[in-house]
Amino acid sequence: MDSLPLALAPLLARRELWLLVSVAYADPYQRARFELLTDSAFRRRAIDAAALLSQEHSGIELGPGEANPKQLSPAKLFRALDAELETLEATYRQLFGLTAISQLCPPCEIEYEPNTDVAYCSQRMADSAGFYQAFGLQVATRAGERLDHIAVEAEFLYVLLAKEAAARQVGNQEGAEVCRDARRKFFQEHVGWWLPAFSRLLSRVAPCDYYRELAGLTAALSAVERTSLKLPPFQARVIPKPSGVEAEAGCLGCVSGQQDPR
User: Fold this and answer.
1) Where are the beta strands (DSSP E) in 81-191?
2) For the domain 6-246, what is the CATH code?
3) Where do the structural domains in the chain lie, given as residue ranges?
């Protein structure tokens, strides 16, 4: 992180960690995507990013289910991954399901919604799709991931942070503010309110170190992101109500050819 402009370092650090979270919650069967976690350069960036953020956000006020930024420990996650890689496919399916959403630990936002009305939930999914499409992202099909899957929502936060950083680096203040405003709104409405509850549940039911470490990292990163966006802790009690519906809506694909920030 030393070569980066000082003002951008925290933003770029969060970018790296949201990418880590997105890939870490992917189905391990998707080897081409999942193997990023074994890349030595990526590991170094993630570890450096976590060190910076845990220091910068020490002593912050935590909401229910959030974790101390000291739990931003990619090194522990990577050690667990190396030890358990061969068994992670089976563990992933046990925890999160495959063609149907898991009853044990649902990894999707809508499964935590207190309002289970079908029309309301459909509108929530459509709202997520609108965010993605507004920033030039295409919806692709990836087995087991809906638009509200944690891997997809984390990927979108990564994209917004990357676009904001690119805008700031070229002095495009207006573009940077558009990205930041979208990130704040998306995090507040679609991520921050349910992610700590999911992380807390995962930490209790995960049968292996990899997913327990990932749960702690996720809860800590959620607290860091919320604080960076100057949002108060989310206080509402969130309990999953898994529907078991098929994960058929697809997922967020790669960034389209539009490289410039909005």
Assistant:
1) 137-140
2) 1.10.3480.10
3) 6-246
